[in-house]
Amino acid sequence: IDRKRKRERVRRLEEVKGGERTYRFALVPKFNCANSPFFTAAFNGCQQRAEDLGNVKCECIEANSFSPEQRSRQELIIANLTARGTFDGIGIAVRKADDVVDAISDAIDAGIPVVTFDSDSPNSRRVAYIGTDNVAMGRELGKVLKQ
Prior knowledge:
- The chain is α/β, with parallel strands linked by helices.
- The protein has a single domain, classed as Response regulator (Rossmann fold, 3-Layer(aba) Sandwich).
- About 45% of the residues lie in helices and about 15% in strands.
- It is built from 5 helices and 5 strands.
- Strand 1, helix 2 and strand 2 (about 55-60) form a beta-alpha-beta unit.
- The longest helix is centred in the N-terminal third of the chain and has 17 residues, at about 35-55.
- GO terms for molecular function: carbohydrate binding.
- Belongs to the bacterial solute-binding protein 2 family.
């Protein structure tokens, strides 16, 4: 999606503020929201924005485990959210990039925008990635440590 289309989507969200329809967004973190300060902050931010808009709901949908199986659970969560058809957008912090590619594509095909945050799935059709370029950060950190 180009920048103009991204701006249009953000603008449309502002335009729905206080409308009759309720919009639902799912946040799918890598770890339990309650056990991670980062994901707690992300969820709180989502809830605050939802409250500001008035007719938006933000839900944290957790895989509830820290095991390797959580990767496939994230895929199942996205598939379930897509099948239910009751969410208007999904934000996911991906455990393993390739495990969610197909589920993200299915959500996009169903008209549900998916944004990755904190960790990306670059081979997916996600709408956007919000996070740090860890490779660039590592290079810069290496330069600083070398000094």
